[in-house]
Amino acid sequence: MPRFFVENLDAGAVTIAGEDAAHIAKTLRLRPGDTIVLSDGQGQDARAVLSAVSPSRVTAEIAGLFPNATEPRLRATVYAALPKSDNAAVIVQKSVELGAREIVFFTSSRTIRRPDDFSSRLTRLARIAREAAGQSGRGILPAVRGLLPFEDAVREASRADIPLFFYEGGGESLRPHPFAGASSCSIFTGPEGGFSEEETALARASGMRVASLGPRILRCETAPVAALTAAMLLSGGLDPV
Fold this sequence. Notes:
There is one protein chain. By secondary structure, this protein is of the alpha/beta class. Helix content is about 30%, strand content about 30%. α2 packs parallel to α6 (about 225-235). The mean pLDDT is about 90.
């Protein structure tokens, strides 16, 4: 069932405008009487019946509220070094689908692309996160932030219950996994050129757990997806509801 994020589910009727209204009217071709799911982005969902549909404005009547059942127990934040090309969009989309609560981009000593103005890219990445959250049935709307300096990103990530720093030069295995009883996890992955030894030493000194994703060298857009998948699997986030 189509899902859309709105600010308030307390009112009896909800108005949807902009791109979502156009998507409902033109792409999905929904009509009055059809049912959609609305989410407040905070874990509350609603079944809603369309009462008026146009490409610029859609009205839906709330027919019932219920808690979202798709959110994983583990609050995972992905910290990804800013990649070149459009790979940031891939990282955001797949991380949201897999259950990340937040995606944070940072720069490091080997970051290839260092844009002067990241705010315009953040707007687009936030839109991609919103679309991915709707498509995958998420109950919250994951945030996208950046760009943080490497040191600030490490400082933030180290506060998680399980702060994982994935280093292509070797690290601990995720088995036996440390996720029992943990409520938060940080997934920290590097740029195309990998992390320097100095950066890895700083992460370790900050309390992060230097971990490995196996003997193969993964692309910078693959590593956060693989690491997040492993964290979700080992913490029960991929179990059936």
